Amino acid sequence: MKQSAHNLNQKIKDLEEVKQYLFYKKVIEEDAEIQKLLAKIKQTQDQMQEALKQKQMSNYQNLKKELAQYRFIFEKHPLLQNYLQYKKDVEQILQEVISVLTWE
Fold first, then answer.
1. Is residue 49's pLDDT more than 70?
2. DSSP letters of 58-82?
3. Transmembrane segments in this chain: where (predicted)?
């Protein structure tokens, strides 16, 4: 049984979708531009929470607009689009595997 699980694991890792997903994940983790953008998004989210705590609604609304701009740039980045597509593909493959394992 354990050997079968290892074989299945290896077959999944050998799929082109999984290889591409892992490739883009690594590229994103190492891309300075994307990491800088992620840091700005996180910082803006933290500032939004602080603005809410301080009941500074006008500041909160400005930060919300700023966050929307960062997210738009983030979501349109070609590396991220590829990463998200392969992530979706891998999730679908894993869901299919789970479905088969559940019914057999």
1. yes
2. HHHHHHHHHHHHHHHHHHH-HHHHH
3. none
